[in-house]
C-alpha cells in the first residue's frame, strides 16, 4: 500500500514541478518590460540619435530568468555584430538600406532610413521550451516599437557591440562606391 502511495506521489511531483517552475520563470520581456508602478511619472528615457546619413539600431536580449544564462548573437547581413547577455542591449550604426538581422535561426528584414531609430528584441521563453510545439516557439526575434524599447532601457544594461562604433555596417542594397 505504501509503495503505491509513494509511486503516485513521485509521479505527481514529476508532473507538477515542471509546471511550477515554468510559472516561476515567467514569460520573457513581461516582467522586465511591464511598466513599474509610477512609471508614467518617470521622465522619458533619452535615446541616442542616429549619426548623419546613417540609421541606429537598438538590439535587446529580453530573455527571462533561466538556470543557465545565455548570450544571443545578433548578425547583420551575415556579419556578427553583437553578443548580448540576458537583460542587456547594444546599439549599432547602420547604413541606410535593407538589412537582414538574425539571431539563431530567426530573421528580421528591415528597410532602414537615414536618421531613424530601429529596435529589435531576442528573447527565450523558458515556459514554452518544454511545451513546444503546443505553446509556440520558445525563442522569439522580432522588431519592437519605441515605447517598449524605452521601458526596457530603464532596466537593461548596455553591452558593447562586436563591431567598433566607428565602423558602420553597410546595407545589402546600398550602392557600391
Shape: elongated
| Unreliable residue runs | 15-41
Helical stretch count? Answer: 4
Strand content: 25-35%
Class inferred from helices and paired strands: alpha+beta
Could you tell me the radius of gyration in angstroms?
20 Å
Mean pLDDT, to the nearest integer, reads 75
Question: What's the number of extended β-strand segments?
Answer: 9
What's the story with the biggest beta sheet?
5 strands, mixed
Order of helices and strands: HHEEEEEEEHEHE
Helix content bin: 10-25%
Spatial order of strands in the largest sheet: 8-7-1-4-9
Query: Termini separation (Å)?
Result: 82 Å
Textual characterization of the structure:
The protein has 177 residues and is α+β, with helices and mostly antiparallel strands. The chain is 23% helix and 31% strand. It has 4 helices and 9 strands; from the N terminus they run ααβββββββαβαβ. The protein has helices spanning 2-25, 30-33, 126-129, 146-153, and strands at residues 55-61, 72-76, 79-84, 88-94, 97-103, 106-112, 117-124, 139-143, 157-158. The strands form 2 sheets. Strands 8-7-1-4-9 form a 5-stranded mixed sheet, covered by helices on one side. The longest helix has 24 residues, at 2-25.
